[in-house]
Amino acid sequence: MKNVFLYIGLFLITSSCSPFVDSPFSDTLLRPERNLNMTSINKLGDIESDNLVRIAVFSDSHQNYKELDKVTFAINAAEDIDFVAGLGDYTNSSYNLEYDQFLDGLQYLDPPKMMAIGNHDAIGAGPQLFKKAFGNANFYFESTNYRFVFFNSNNLEDPEGFDLDWLTNAIVTAKKVFIFSHVQLRDSERYFGTDATKLNAIITAANVQVIFNGHNHVYDLMTDNNTVMVQCGRVDGDDGAHWLQIDIALPATQICIKRMDTMESACENLK
Question: b/e string for 142-161 if b means 16 or more Cβ within 10 A?
Fold first, then answer.
């Protein structure tokens, strides 16, 4: 009996020294990172100075931390990456412990990294957790010739954060526009009526050159009214750790996409 009380006492002493989160459903984060997207934007510098814009893109890591580590290692080893774009679904259920786990791995990714929010990241307290760690889910930044727009496309999970009027205004610029979102903006199961009409105007806008999405877990490349549509697969791909290297040589007439799991490349003309 004395041993039982001894073990209970040791458990209480040691467990009281560990961090405590009141609930996995709360908006409490143990990781200290805050406003990471803006922190990365402030580190960018002139990404067009070498006449090559090179972007690393990954999506849908979910619980696949080992594969995410492989992607991180590969991106860090690649040459001349200007920034990394994450396309969402870093968690399964938006639990704070999942956000903490993702942030723990993300700290080892060296280039500036900007994250879009996925539908799995926007459940329950997910939008609050995302805002704490990364900042606003709708944001953009610019280089000399481009505006890079990150959009919260999760109309079902986060209707308050889904703001098509914001996106419509965000593409109003003399610069060429790249859009990064989680859900494919032609998803007819999510977007219909007025939303579909607004999205059509955005997709077909003369200065919107490329739209990236994840969500569907498989790679795809197509054009839509001369807008290049790039779908990134999940990091845990059938052919290994999946991410994309995007090259835009200036002055830009093409975008070239390289799958880094199969090493296949393709180029599309830019409007």
Answer: ebeebbbbbbbbbbebbeeb
